[in-house]
Amino acid sequence: MKSGTIEFEGWKKCVELKNGGFRIVVTTEVGPRIIGAFLGQGPNMLYVAPETAGKKGGDEWNIYGGHRLWHSPEARPRSYTPDNTPVSVKKEKDGFVFSSGIEQITGINKSVKISPAGKNGFKLTHILKNENLWNIELAAWALTVMAQGGTAVVPQPQGDKETLLPNRYLTIWPYTNMADPRFTWGDKYILTTQDVNAKSNAKFGINCENGWIAYVNKGYALKKSFSHFVDAEYPDNGCSVEIFSCPWMLEIETLSPLYQIAPGDTIFHEEVWEAFKCDDVSNEKTWRGDICWL
Description:
By secondary structure, the protein is an all-beta fold. The protein contains one helix and 21 strands.
């Protein structure tokens, strides 16, 4: 893995990491935030909010865009602790650790470690440490804000078609219209498009036993793989994956199980990022068994 320092989207101190043809950009002036993801000469697969690009400081939480680490279940003000200050960067033998320190509101210490994975990927280890004097229950929540115009792909659990018990748990948020044309409720996959002309927000979650989620846009795909633990308790009625789509971006999100974290203890949630050249998948009928990563 190669590394360097660059200016990107108005932030003057960013760390650029390259592994094969895949490169990502991490800003150190706010965060931790991965603010860019590129395969070869392709476009940024992540969305950067133009109104906050290059911004830092202040007391209000900013979307910024890119990839961030939260903890679930979502709540105000806990989830919306501002990440507007510089992060520390520690170079280790197998990668870099980006740390924001202890959140004053929650007492949680956030870090993201980035290491090479294979010839063309990265492993992101999301780290939450309880610095309080009491136990806390939470899940690590890895949210990636994707560029406009693409399609999110979520595999559905299949299982034995003859079984008598259910095997998938679909969570729908109250502002979501299940008849929204952005959704394709397919047999094997749920597709969600990002539409800049949409008039509302939409969100769903599922127990993603396949352990991956992806986003395809402009001939490129970003796939995030993780471990789904079948017998574990997940937040939001059992979700290990969630999709949020609004008129200006789409988030692909993975979650760890819920943990009771004792004072001084730490939990870890890993994602492996891979990038591919990929055809359009806006209609599930166009899928082939060998497309991209399948």
